[in-house]
């Protein structure tokens, strides 16, 4: 009868914990945009308590403000939000962030990379195309005679982390979207284009031959 109760034993064990033993570690799942823009999350964790000699498991909920610009596997520390024994300082809550990949945006530091499909005529003639950014749709100018896989930079359209003065950029990778079939008119126009290219190349080759002949005569070389 005079021995310690279960609650007394538990209290002694709990109060004998070091600061590190009172810390709690949990993981939080974030979407790509939640990590980039910042958000508020409710974090729950469970812990064991004994009241009136009854062992029970309780759950604690903490509202956490996730700062903008966090990345996968980063850790946030909330001081004093861990276990509290009633004596000494309470432990800390450590939150490990698990950021999901996005099917469109690809992250590289504070920069964003996206792919934008463009047609052959847009590459050759130049065009204004709509590109999805972190802030919505934005117009982008494609220069005439752009190469397939050309990369265009949209300065200041990347990620801006809390507490950082620098903001990343968005890099747009142009992807040529070939037509599945050509109309008769399209085929005729492309054939005319190809014929003109051949004539230009033939003219350049002829000029090179003429210049080479004149060089041979000037040098007195016979072939």
UniProtKB/TrEMBL annotation:
SUPFAM superfamilies: HSP40/DnaJ peptide-binding domain
A Pfam family it matches: DnaJ_C
Annotated Gene Ontology cellular component terms: cytoplasm
Single GO BP term: protein refolding
GO molecular function: unfolded protein binding; zinc ion binding
Family matches, as Gene3D superfamilies: Urease metallochaperone UreE, N-terminal domain
Keyword annotations from UniProtKB, A to Z: Chaperone, Metal-binding, Repeat, Zinc, Zinc-finger
Domain Chaperone DnaJ C-terminal: 24-179
Entries under PANTHER family matching the protein: DNAJ HOMOLOG 1, MITOCHONDRIAL-RELATED
Protein name: Chaperone DnaJ C-terminal domain-containing protein
Organism from which the protein derives: Fibrocapsa japonica
């Amino acid at each position: 009868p005079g021995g310690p109760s279960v609650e007394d034993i538990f209290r002694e064990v709990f109060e004998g914990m070091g600061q590190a033993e009172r810390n709690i570690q949990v993981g939080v799942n974030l979407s790509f945009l939640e990590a980039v823009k910042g958000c508020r999350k409710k974090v729950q964790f469970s812990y064991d308590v004994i009241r009136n000699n009854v062992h029970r498991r309780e759950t604690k909920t903490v509202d956490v403000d996730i700062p903008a610009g966090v990345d996968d596997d980063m850790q946030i520390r909330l001081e004093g939000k861990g276990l509290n024994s009633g004596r000494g300082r309470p432990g800390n809550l450590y939150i490990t962030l698990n950021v999901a990949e996005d099917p469109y945006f690809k992250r590289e530091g504070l920069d964003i990379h996206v792919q934008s499909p463009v047609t052959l005529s847009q590459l050759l003639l130049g065009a204004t195309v709509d590109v999805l950014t972190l802030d919505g749709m934005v117009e982008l100018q494609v220069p005439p005679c752009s190469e397939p896989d050309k990369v265009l930079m949209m300065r200041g359209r990347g990620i801006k982390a809390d507490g950082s003065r620098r903001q990343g950029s968005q890099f747009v990778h142009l992807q040529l979207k070939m037509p599945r079939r050509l109309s008769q008119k399209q085929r005729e126009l492309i054939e005319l284009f190809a014929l003109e290219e051949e004539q230009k190349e033939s003219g350049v080759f002829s000029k090179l031959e003429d210049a080479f002949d004149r060089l041979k005569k000037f040098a007195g070389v016979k072939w």
